[in-house]
Amino acid sequence: MRSHAQSHTAKHPHDQIHDHYSMLRTDFASGQTIAVLHIGANRTVIAIGQGSEPQATWALEIGSRKIANAYFKRELPAPEEIEAAIVAIEDEISRARPILAAAPTVLTNDTDVREIALAAGVTNGARIMLPLEVVERTFDRLVAAALRQVWHDMPQGTQFAATLTILRELMHHLKIPSLTVHAE
C-alpha cells in the first residue's frame, strides 16, 4: 500500500476529487485552506488547496469495498476482522499524517459518510457537522454489536462497516476534530 502526492493536473479517471473539491470550494473565500475527503470503493482521496483547484491530492490505498472484501466475512464483521482492518488502515494513514496540518476545514459530500452521520443521530440537512466524538461513539456501537453486547440499528453491510472504520481511523489519526458533510 502506498500513498502519493500528485499535482493538480494529474487526475486519475476514477477519481472525482477535483469535481468534489470545486463544488465544495464555492462556500469559502479564496486563500482559505480547505481539504476535501472522498472515501471511494477502492481508494480514499484527499484534495487540499486555497483556490478554485486543489494544489495537491493524495490517494490512500484504502476504500470501503477494498477493506470490506479483504477483511469482513459477515454483514456484521467480527471484532478480530475489524481489528485486522484497522491495522491495514492505520498503516496506510501513517503515510498521510502531514496532509491535513494546514487545513482547518475538512469537507465531504460522500453519501456513505452522510449515512454514517444519520446513523449517529446527527440531524439531516444540507450541511451536517460530524465531530470526531460522534464518529467514535458510532464506531463503539459497531464494535459492541460485533461483540454481541448490544443490538444495533445501524445500516447493515460490510461496506458501511468499512466506511465507518476508515472514517474513524482517518479522523482519529489525522487529528480531524470535525468534518462537514454536504448534501450532493
Core attributes:
single chain, 184 residues, Nucleotidyltransferase, domain 5, seven-stranded mixed β-sheet, 6 helices, globular, disordered N terminus
Give a description of the structure.
With 184 residues, the protein is α/β, with parallel strands linked by helices. The protein has a single domain (4-182), classed as 2-Layer Sandwich (Nucleotidyltransferase, domain 5), CATH 3.30.420.150. The chain is built from six helices and seven strands, in the order E-H-E-E-E-H-H-E-H-E-H-H-E. Strands 1-4-3-2-5-7-6 form a seven-stranded mixed beta sheet, with helices on both faces. Helix 2 packs across helix 6 (158-173), helix 3 (79-93) crosses helix 6 and helix 4 crosses helix 6. The chain is globular, with a radius of gyration of 16 Å. The model is unreliable at 1-11 (pLDDT under 50).
Number of helices: 6
Q: What is the CA-CA span between the terminal residues?
A: 30 Å
- Computed over alpha carbons, the radius of gyration is 16 Å
Strand content of the residues, in percent? 15-25%
- Helix coverage percent: 25-40%
| CATH superfamily heading | Exopolyphosphatase. Domain 2
Mind telling me the CATH class?
Alpha Beta
* Low-pLDDT ranges: 1-11
Indicate the CATH topology: Nucleotidyltransferase, domain 5
| Major sheet size, sense and barrel closure | 7 strands, mixed
